[in-house]
């Protein structure tokens, strides 16, 4: 680039005055940027939030149960979803000691609604144990990864957030609370999510 500019200057295509104007414009821009606060992180967070909100995908047509009060129990990984529910069972990224979580479930008073945020098959295994422990609870499941995780779940409501990022969890929470819609559409073909009847045992 420098060589091309020098040749253009030497043959008169670019004059001294034109170079000085460009230099002054560059220096003014650098001075402006040096004295302004460019919040790149805030911009990135805003973009992440918009993408997450647009990605939320509700599966099935069941009505979301009310998620207020102390009768709601959450199972899942750390993040905004878990923070929103005081009664919760924190899961690691991958569950290895299932006996520990099965014993933990035995100490929990039966909830009216069970909310589970699953990220992999090990989380699904804990969720199945919870369903056996609380067969009368309404079940709301959020996939923080592939929508295929929801195929094997018999739930009252199922939502795919596609990611476990804070932005995705916050967007999912807004949908669960009825404060935002779930405009996303499944990128893959899936069988429909079944809704458990009151008399049916969990699978």
List the helices and strands and how they pair.
Blueprint: H1 2-10, H2 16-34, H3 40-55, E1 57-59, E2 72-76, H4 80-83, E3 88-90, H5 98-106, E4 113-118, H6 121-133, E5 138-143, E6 157-160, H7 166-176
Parallel strand pairs: 2-3, 2-4, 4-5, 5-6
Antiparallel strand pairs: 1-6
Helix pairs in contact: 3-7, 5-6
How would you describe what is shown here?
By secondary structure, the chain is an alpha/beta fold. It has helices at residues 2-10, 16-34, 40-55, 80-83, 98-106, 121-133, 166-176, and strands at 57-59, 72-76, 88-90, 113-118, 138-143, 157-160. A 6-stranded mixed sheet has the order 1-6-5-4-2-3, with helices on one face. The longest helix is centred in the first third of the chain and has 19 residues, at 16-34. It is elongated, with a radius of gyration of 26 Å.
Keywords for this structure?
7 helices; 13% strand; six-stranded mixed beta sheet; alpha/beta
Oligomer: single chain
The coarse overall form would be elongated
Largest sheet: 6 strands, mixed
Detail the poorly predicted runs.
Answer: 197-203
Strand content: 5-15%
According to DSSP, the number of beta strands is 6
SS element count, helices? 7
Calculate Rg over CA atoms: 26 Å
- Helix-residue proportion: 25-40%
Topology as a string of helices (H) and strands (E): HHHEEHEHEHEEH
Structural class: alpha/beta
Spatial strand order of the main sheet: 1-6-5-4-2-3
**Whole-Å distance between the termini?**
67 Å
Global mean pLDDT = 87
